[in-house]
Every structure is written in C-alpha cells, then in structure tokens.
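Input set for joint prediction.
Command: fold jointly, output tokens.
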Amino acid sequence: MNSQSIVLTLLLALCSPFAWAELAVVAHPDKKMISLDRAQLVNIYMGRYRQWPDGGAALPADLKDVKERFYRALVDKDLAEINSYWARLVFSGQVSPPVQLKSVTQVLEYVRRNQGALAFIDEADVPDDLKVVARLTEAAPQ
Amino acid sequence: MSLSRLFVCLAAIPLFATGEAVASDYLDGRLSVRGFGTLGVTYNTTADAQFIRDINQLDGPADSWSHDVDSRLGLQLGWRFSSTLDAVVQGVSRYDAHGRYDPQLTWAFVRYAPDASKQFRFGRLALDMYMLADSRDVGYSYLWVRPPVDYYGIRHLTHIDGGDITLKRPVGSGLLWGKLYAGIADEEISSGIDGVVFDAEGTRVYGGHLNYQWGAWHAQLGATELQYQLDASSEYMQAIRFAEFFDPALANLLKDIIEPVHMQITSLGLAYDSGRLYVQAMASHLNRPGTEFDIDSAFVTLGYRMEPVTPYVSLSGSRTEGVQYRDIGIDVDGSAGLTQQTLSFGARYDLSSSLALKTQLDFINVDQAGILWRSVAPDWDGRTEVLSINLDFVF
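tokens >
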C-alpha cells in the first residue's frame, strides 16, 4: 500500500459512520423552540431533574438497541454501570428509570403521543415531523 | 428447612435468569415488581472476636466462614396512580438482631410529585441521613461488598414512619437540591450482650441535607437530630439490678446505655464519578451527651473501571474517646469504645447487566473493641483480616 492509499484509507475511516456516528434526541413537535445541552440531558436521563426548560415534565425513553451507545456517549458508562446506578435510585424509592422501548417504531409513537417525551435514535432514523433537541457524537472506536 | 436455607434457595433463583435486569411492569406500566439480593460468604481470620456488618446483627464469624453477614433479599412493588402520584412498598429479609431472616417492611409510602422541583412522601421511608444511607442493602448498587463498616456499621436506623420533602432547582451549571425529613423509628438492635435485643421504637428523627451536583461531582452536607430511646427486655433490667450489688459502675453504664438521649449527627460527603474514575469520601461526627462516646468517622474509596472489572481500594476509620474498663469496675487495661481502621482492597466483576461478583479483603486494626464486635476475647490483639465473596443481583 503506497502512502496515498494509506491517507485515503485513513480519511475514509474518519468519515465512516462507525467512527463518527451521531445519535439524535427527538421530542414532540411542540418543543420546536427548545434545544437541550449535555448537562440538561444528563439531568433528565439520569433522573436528577426531569423538567423541560419551558417548564413541562420531561418523560425520557430508552431504545433497547441504541441504549448502550447512548449512555457511553452521554456519561461514558456501560450498561452494567447504568443498571447499578438505577438500582440505587429505584431501591431507595427516589425515581424510576426511563421507559424501556424495543423498536424505533415504538419510540416514534411514544414521542408523538406524549408532549413531554424525548428519546434517542440514530440520526438516520429521524423523521420530518419530530424535533431534534440534542445531538450526541459518539467517540471513534478504540 | 431452616429459614436461612430457604432464604439462600430463594436468592439463588435469579441466577438462573439470563441477561438483562429489568423490572417487570404490568397493567400498562402501572404496577412494577422489582427485587435485589446478595449471596455472600465472609471469612474472619481471628478467633478472638466475631465480625458483624452492623449493630443490627446478632453475631458473626470468628475464625470461620459465614453466609449471614451480607446475604439478603429485597422485593419492591410500585403502583402508579397518575403521573404525579404513586405508592411504593419494599421489604427486606436479612440476618437480624434475633439471628433470623424475618422479612422487614422497610418502606411503604405514597409520593406526590407535582413537578420535577418538588416531591412529598408520606409513610414508611428510607432514612436518608447521608449518602447511600437509604440503599445500604442493595449490594448491586455500589462497589464494595458492603458499605464501610467503620462508617455505616453503627448507623442502624434504616427507616422512619413520617414524611419528607425534596426541593430542587438548577443553579449555575449544576443542580441544587435539599431534603427535609421527620419521623419515628421502628427498629430493633442487638445489645451484643447475651442475645438481649433493644427496641428503638419511639426514637424521633428530624433532619435534612443540602446537595449540589455539577458535572461528575456531588457534594452533600447533612444534619440529623435523634431523640434516641431504647426499650430493654426484662432480662436486661434484671441484669442491671444484679450488677448494682457487685459492680455499681457497670450497673450505671448499663443504665446509661438505655437512657433517652439527644444525639446529633452531622456529615459531609463528596463524590466524583467521571465514568472511569470513581472517588467517594465522607466524614461525620456523632455528638451525644458526655464526650466518651462522641464518634468521628470517615472513609475514602477510589475505584477505576476497566470493563467489566472495577478494582478499588478503600480506607475507613472511626474514633471515640472511649471509657476505661477500670472506670467501670473491669480489671483489664484499655478502654471500650469504637476506635478502629480498615484498609480494603477489592474488585467488582459485572457478569451481566444484572449480576455482579465481588471480592474484598479487609485489613482491620481495632484499638477499642466496642459495639461493632461480638464475643471479644480480653486478650485479642485487635488485628484481623476479613475475606468476602459476594454475588449481587437485581431483577
């Protein structure tokens, strides 16, 4: 492999969706004026403070197949650590974990139906009618 | 089949379940059923004193293995009436002051949370006196095989019948929140004397804490007032009358133990959790009338996540002035109190997202053997090692 093709391969790797995939956090169309920063997203998803900046209750949902990537990008934790974190909050009677959903279809339906709902999906799955309130970029695989 | 055998069999059931730990939700998510547990074995190298996890336990291992120190099973039922009103009932079975696994109702409350900034709970509540105090039984939720004994071992009140209020608001880049609670305790503790059990029912508890969470940091400042009251059995009262004849000083000490007292506990906690690096440190002071049994205690734990293993090291200790044995008529050098230090090394291995295997080795150095040890030999040099292997799960 000559030096040109090495550079080309590296560039392709950097552009590949596996290296720089984006996750989108979608919400009800009514939230069109709102965007969330990382700290607000952590507050909502980790059960610290579940309120939208405009005042309504935030109802987060987890999508099973994307969950591991989402929490890695959000708080750099694996699913065992996330479950351990929730065990403490749940069994001390504080707050419940996000609603667990299995498919993108279920997620979209949940978000369309509930005004305060938010959920993460792959950027490629974002439909036109929902509002993207945050984006998370995944780190390149080690 | 003994209760403890039955308990172990029950606890083993979730091991056959595979994969993810998820609560079971029924009736369109209104009813939730969740559980947690620990199967643990503990070996204490000294034959001169029995190791216990907290003062609620009747006895513990001495130069032997025991499955009673950490093994426990909990079950929680939740019912959601509406998006702002729900109810939770939780029971735990663990080795208790009578040496049994009688299930205990640890919480049963109704919660009203009109929005994210306010929450009101009424009923039987976890006593949230300091960080992790309300989840001490849930081994799966922390790194150690058990919360540091020097720090948590004497804090035996786990719940109150009363209420609490939590208020939160974003401040700067973090979250400021506080909690106030008040209620009456309903718990039994082992006296450590020949199976005598004290009843702490009627103890009044008031307190609160203030927290600030920002990024990976969490700081907590807490204060609690306890109007502590212990009822002793008739055997204990008889022992006092008997002691009055041959050792009035000892009789006075036994009387002092059950005198109603006001105690104050103040604590400061700091935690850092960046995803990989985990650090937690706490310090507290327990103040009671007289200075002999004021207790200062602290711990610091450092863990580093190397998926799926998290090795950790922890240093903890507690200190009292203590009371000289000779002052209470016992002809032995030294003093009774609660001065000891523990250095622990351990690792948590996550077998799945609902099951963790942990092992921990504690090096313990005791200067004043007090209520945290059972059946202490007078000539014990105060040194021991404790090895623990636990399997923690949630379902």
